[in-house]
Amino acid sequence: MIIPKTREEIELMRESALIVSKTLGEIAKVIKPGVTTLYLDKIAEECIRDHGAVPGFLGLYGFPNTLCVSPNTQVVHGIPNSKPLEEGDVISVDCGALKNGFYGDHAFSFEIGEVAPEVKKLLQVTKESLYVGIREFRIGNRVEDVGSAIQKYCESHGYGVVRELVGHGLGRKMHEDPEMPNYGKRGRGKMFIEGMVVAIEPMINMGTKNVKQLKDGWTILTADGKPSAHFEHDVALIDGKPEILSTFKYVYDALGIVSNEEDEFRRQPLS
Asked: For a Cys staple, 68 with which of 94, 170, 203, 222, CB 3.0–4.6 Å?
């Protein structure tokens, strides 16, 4: 059952989402070759707690850390470790925070130093597909309208769209109805309703759509050993249109990137 949120609840969710956004911004300041993902995990936990929240992933379903960090051929749910990042890596950093009873859940794929042109394109297309999907999150549409748009966009570039992992509703629980697949057929799935909040998160592979899982019970890898990318925003349906609650602004500020990609999904600029 989809649980719509009041305007007041959406503002609380915006606060949780922006704590995650700020945490990813702190990660962006320090992520580079030689840094370990365990160090990134420490930075993230400190940032979340400093903002009066608690890590949303730590202990969730038994997950052992604050961040899911998934380099190169890992798709999602990678566990932080002591292996240093290397020049040319690409790494998905997925983070959650819980404050005032509501979750934020947000992800960005980082380039470590100079990455191969084909990997850079994968990240670009995956992030573009996120906004392609968000545009379909509006009154009158259904769940698979979002997935169909993402799938069509990514497959037109020759990429594989993961089937086993999907976005989701968000609220007092990390995972609520509806599931938000990144594939589908237009006109199918649950109707969108005013006040619902979802996490839209394309998980796109350079090669096959197929994945496999490590024996740790968490880490998901591409089946063919090619790179994967992952971007995620929290989005509310307000006045029939999508409004992004999270932001990549803090990441971009840290990396010196200027972007207006989120402007169409905001009623007012971020302060």
From this structure: 94
